[in-house]
Amino acid sequence: MGPSGAGKSTFLDGLAGRIASGSLKGRVSFAGTEMSPSLIKRTSAYIMQEDRLFPMLTVYETLMFAADFRLGPISAADKKQRVEKLIEQLGLSSSRNTYIGDEGTRGVSGGERRRVSIGVDIIHGPSLLFLDEPTSGLDSTSAQV
C-alpha cells in the first residue's frame, strides 16, 4: 500500500483508536454508521508488526495462556476446545507442541510464529482485525499461507 515511511502504520493506528484522543480529527463510519473509538476497541483486534511471544512456551501453551487471559470465566473445556479449533484453522497442528523459540532457542518457523501471534489476538473472536504488515519479514511461501 506504499513505501516505508508513507504512514501506513500511523493510518492503521488512527483507525484502531491507538493514537491519543484529541491528536487526530475525523470520523470513522461503517455502512453509514459512525463508529466510536471505544466501540472499535471492544470489537476489534490489532495485530502488531512485532511479535511479542514467550519463547519458552509451546504453540499450544501460548494459545491457552491467551485464552485464559482473554476469555474470562468460561470453562476450561470450552477454552481448550477454542484453542484446538484455532490451532487447526491456523494450520498449526504439526507444531502445536513446538516451542516458540527466540534467537538462542530453535522454535517454530517465521510463518508459524506469525500465525501464533495472530491467534493470540483473535482467540476472543473479534469482529474486526487490524493487521499491521502481517507478511513483513516472511518469504513468499510463508506469506502465502
Automatic annotation (TrEMBL):
Domain ABC transporter: 1-136
Predominant cellular place of this UniProt entry's protein: membrane
Gene3D superfamilies, A to Z: P-loop containing nucleotide triphosphate hydrolases
Alphabetized UniProt keyword annotations: Membrane, Transmembrane, Transmembrane helix, Transport
Transport among keywords: yes
Record GO cellular component, one term: membrane
A GO term, aspect molecular function: ATP hydrolysis activity
Highest taxon of the lineage: Eukaryota
Membrane topology qualifier: Multi-pass membrane protein
Keyword RNA-binding belongs to the record: no
Location of this chain's protein in the cell: Membrane
The protein's name in its UniProt record: ABC transporter domain-containing protein
Taxonomic source organism: Hevea brasiliensis
